[in-house]
Specification:
This protein is about 85% helix and about 0% strand. It is mainly α.
């Protein structure tokens, strides 16, 4: 295995770094950092999984609530249609009743507006009856 030094470094300087006593520590520190990073990624993935599960639960609950509300709206619309039909029937009955009341009113008014029966009265006998009534009242 050959190691190619970075540009600008001599092969000898690279060998010194590899053989220096600090080299194993640097690798163990790097490994520790990699393990910490992978642990952080694992925790983030677990949290993301938990959040996805929570999101699915909330979505399911929201869908169920929507279905319930849609059913409630549909029932309300049915009640509204029935109420509107009852209103139409009641209005039709009211119009018919009003028409009958107009007919009844016209019949009653027509019956009482007939010309009165001709009554012939003798004016002379009326005057005599009046005098007789006045005389009786004064004598009492």
């Amino acid at each position: 295995m050959s190691f190619i030094p970075p540009a600008g470094e001599s092969p000898r300087a690279t060998e010194e770094v590899r053989s220096s006593p600090k080299s194993p520590r640097d690798w163990s520190t790097a490994i520790d950092l990699i393990q910490e990073a992978s642990e952080a990624i694992r925790i983030s993935e677990e949290r993301a999984t938990e959040l996805e599960g929570h999101l699915r639960q909330i979505t399911a609950e929201a869908s169920e609530e929507m279905r319930r509300l849609e059913a409630h709206i549909a029932a309300g619309e049915q009640r509204l249609l029935k109420a509107e039909e009852r209103i139409r029937r009641a209005e039709a009955r009211a119009e018919e009743a009003e028409a009958w009341l107009v007919r009844l009113h016209d019949a009653v008014i027509g019956a009482f507006r007939r010309p009165p029966a001709v009554i012939t009265v003798d004016r002379a006998s009326d005057a005599a009856d009046e005098e007789e009534t006045t005389t009786q009242q004064t004598s009492d």
